Every structure is written in structure tokens, then in C-alpha cells.
Amino acid sequence: MYESLRGKNVLLTGASGGIGESLALELAKTGCNLFLTGRDEEKLKLLKNEILEIKQDVRVFYKSCDLEREDDLKFLISSIRDTIKTVDILVNCAGIFIVKPLCETTVDDYEKCFNVNVKAPFFLSKVFSKDMMKKKWGRIINIGSSSSYSGYKETSLYCASKHALLGISRSLYDELKDYNIKTFCFSPGSVKTRMGKKVKNQDFSTFIEPEELSKYITLTISFDSDMITEEIKINRFNV
Known about the structure:
- This protein has six helices and seven strands; from the N terminus they run E-H-E-H-E-H-E-H-E-H-E-H-E.
- The chain is of the alpha/beta class and about 240 residues long.
- It has a seven-stranded parallel sheet, sandwiched between helices.
- Helix 2 (about 40-55) links the parallel strand 2 and strand 3 (about 60-65).
- The two termini are about 30 Å apart.
């Protein structure tokens, strides 16, 4: 079932977060090679060791990176070129979740949120879609949110950035499909992660399990025929 993913090179941002960590483990099980990036280098190191304990025949690299900084992004790309060389599957999982009333939200908040949630996926998709175009095969996975389709109080920046990510996904899907590159935007409701704990006035016990979400994403991107669902909105059942 996952044969189409075996041996493919994955760049996964946000790998030190809850969804990213779970996705890394799930993709490794299919035989993907991984380049992991996130803010916490120690967590990336531990994740690499955990992956190699369960799957010894894959290659795993990591590099801490602040996606807010363009210099860090360029250094990340250089590190990838020095190791796995090319990217077949790009997973834009990193995200910043700012919870503030509009009147307290700053321009600095705006820049941080959009740099990580929008600019970094745009930049990495621009660079590594060229690898995929040459190979006539690729996957771009953007992790959106229920906020890609709705607006909620005190999260105006986050909602706006996830709407923008959905817009980028729709455009990339249409632009790259002739090169056999499939672009997906997975938009889950609240997930049981550290970020999820910042969500106000909701029952954390009803949140989506990151392991189940990761299995769902991995299965969905593995189909290699003409079938595709490019936008996937994943809701919580008990709400």
C-alpha cells in the first residue's frame, strides 16, 4: 500500500512539535528518508534516535532552524543539498499559534505568524518543487487547520495565515499537477499537542489524536493513481 513512498526523501518542518513528531515516525515506517527541522535541536536528536530504533534501513538527518529568519531558511536548504540532496515530499508542518485580542496584537506578532505559517511554506515549495518537477513525481503537504475555513475570536492572525496557506495550496495544486506533483492541505480541528493546550474554552479530551492524524495523512498521500482529494478538512467527532 505504501510502496510509492518507499525510499522517497522527506523534508518535514515542525518536527519537534506534536504533529510533526508523529508524522516523522509514521513516514519512517513506510521507508522514507527524513530531513527533520524544528526549533528544538535536542528534541530532533531524540526523534532521530527513536526513528532509527524502529526503522534501521532509513536515512535520518536533522537541523534546528528558525523559520522566521530567511538566513536560517537558506542555511537549511544548503544543509539539505549536502545530505539528502533532493526532496520528493515536502511537509510544511511548522506553525505559530498566537492567541491575543486584536487590540493587543502587534506588527511583530503579524510578522512572526506569517513568516512561519505562510512565507516558509511558500519559500520551501518554490525551491523543492523544482526537484519534483524534474522527477515528474512529488508531494507537497501543507498542514492547515479548521481555521483555514473559519474565524475565531482572539486568533485573527492565525486564522488569516491558515486561510493564506489554503490559498497557496489551491494554487500549487493547479499549477503543479501536470508534473505529477500532488499538493494537499490537511485542515484538522484541534489536536492533542502542546499547541492544542493553548486553545481556549474547549474540551481537550475531545481533541484529535496526533498518531491517528499522521496515519490518515500518510495513507492519503500514498495513493499513486489519478485519484486525489486535495483539500481534507478533518473534524472532531464529539463536538
